[in-house]
Amino acid sequence: MSYYSRSPPPLQHPVPTHPAFIPEPPSTPASPQGYQRFASSPPQNQQYAARTQYHPPPFQPIPNPQPQHIPDFAAWGMNDTTAQFGMHLGQTAVAAGQDYVQKNFAGMIQVTMLKHHFNVSNSYVMHKLQLVIFPWRHKPWTRKVRRTEAGHTEWQPPRDDINSPDLYIPLMALVTYILVAAFQTGLQERFHPQILGSSATRALLVVLLDFLFVQCGCYLLNVQGTGQVVDLIAYGGYKFVGVILTLFAGLLNLNPTIYALVFLYAFAANALFILRSLRSVVLPDSPANVGTVNPASRKRRISFLFLEAVLQVVYMGILVRV
Predict the structure, then answer these.
(1) Could you give the CA distance from residue 194 to residue 160 in angstroms, rounded to a whole number?
(2) How far is CA 95 from CA 98, 109, 137, 264, 279, in A?
């Protein structure tokens, strides 16, 4: 009984003890990257400065590549493999053609020469058409020259000289002639797609025959400096302007007498234009050529010019028969 009556001893909780002094860590040399070792957490202002020192680069979105437009060859009844093979074959053929033209015709017709003959303006085209249709009172007919920076002389471009031949008007007149001829056959209920090809072939053959006749005549007459090939082709292409006027007269269903008068006027205007324009080629006015041409040779050259002018009625008669 005395054992159970004894009370237990009071509980005592342990009291934590803290060290009175915490030794500082040994000092380390400064890091080359600018880092600093702290014994405790850095102050608030240094934390803000460390956060504000880093500036991330601005975000630059990566541009998406533009999708290439690929035609839908399935709509034409071809699969992709056949279409790609055909496109590759076509590109190869075009490249081969360009290489062939560059090798065989680059020496005959230069690109700079073609650019010179297409250097026209709206004012030049209007005045040139007026000159081709009404050449009766035009003066002078001599072409203008200019001196380059290297000291050489060259002809002025068509936009600066109305007497200079160009290829713009003959080319546009050729295309217009083909379309008007096809339109006239359509009104007569004779149109067929082959009309376009036959008209173009007839026109090109006439221009080629005219060019060969002038070249052979200049060769036989020993004409020095007969001019450029493009110049002679351009002079031969102006006849399409008079041919188009004659075809328009036929489209109006005029009296046959009026139609014949329009044709004769177009022939006479073109003949005079060719006669005066080719004179600078066959009988140049330069002082170096005046003394070298004797009277007999000069007479033959003048006869050749008149023959070339008269032959225009044959060329134009072939062209108006569509």
Answers:
(1) 40
(2) 5, 19, 49, 47, 41
Q: Which pLDDT does position 118 carry in this prediction? A: 93
pLDDT tens column, 243-266: 999 999 999 988 899 999 999 999
Structural Rg of the chain based on CA atoms: 45
With beta carbons less than 8 A apart as the criterion, state whether 178 and 200 touch. Answer: yes
| Residues whose CB is less than 8 angstroms from the CB of residue 292 and which lie 6 or more positions away in sequence, other chains included | 224
Q: How many CB atoms lie within 10 A of CB 162?
A: 17
pLDDT-above-90 percentage for the chain: 45
Amino acid at 159: R
Averaged pLDDT of the chain: 79
Inform me whether the pLDDT recorded for 50 exceeds 70.
Answer: no
Who contacts 168 (Cβ-Cβ below 8 Å, separation ≥6)? 117, 118, 120, 125, 158
Cα 289 to Cα 226: distance, rounded to the nearest angstrom:
12
3-state helix/strand/coil string of 300-319: HHHHHHHHHHHCHHHHHHHH
